[in-house]
């Protein structure tokens, strides 16, 4: 059983388009995250949700809008895609907001903007 | 603000040998947690080992152990008896508690295992 799943795994699109990435976790966790990994493999937090409530927003452009319909899902919608948005996007979840908790990562979505 | 620094972009080790990956960090919090995550070519991020800052004893998980030097803000990972499956990017990460529980990652070290 996949603990944290993301769809799609690969996304190729043109500049200016709008796209969404979906994430689901079946671990019963309360907290979910979006991370961005750039071409140099650097990973940076974008957003964090706890029980559907936004708790961390790391100065991400407002073209990026996360949505959590329930605590098992956290989707990421990106408007007006730019070349610099090309990256691998990882969804993760943890049992709760405790800093000691292991975060379980999805397989990543490689977004390529042409 | 918290930062994590990995000064070794690449390391290599002979199979069955021991290798140590370095990590230094900075945080103003007294209560924090340190992690090593592994990212193999499959891209899947996997937790290798975790250390609570309040614990003086170094964490150990089978062939993986850490050398946690709190005063020096150093957190190195030792891999013993290296295996081909250990080849991956290794990321050091830091987390604090409620309100800032995101993982702050270092830039990673690519580990190659030489058969």
Provide an overview of this structure.
The complex is a heterodimer of chains A (114) and B (115). Chain A has 114 residues and is mainly beta. Chain A contains no helices and eleven strands. In chain A, strands 2, 4, 5, 6, 9, 10 and 11 form a seven-stranded mixed beta sheet that branches. A four-stranded antiparallel beta sheet of chain A has the order 1-3-8-7, with no helix packed on it. The radius of gyration of chain A is 13 Å and the shape is globular. In chain A, 33% of the residues are buried. By secondary structure, chain B is an all-beta fold. Helix content of chain B is 0%, strand content 52%. Chain B has no helices and twelve strands. In chain B, the strands form three sheets. In chain B, strands 2, 5, 6, 10, 11 and 12 form a six-stranded mixed beta sheet that branches. In chain B, strand 10 and strand 11 form a beta hairpin. The radius of gyration of chain B is 14 Å and the shape is globular. The model of chain B has no long low-confidence stretch (mean pLDDT 94). The chains are: A mainly beta (114), B mainly beta (115). The interface between A and B is medium-sized, with 27 and 28 residues.
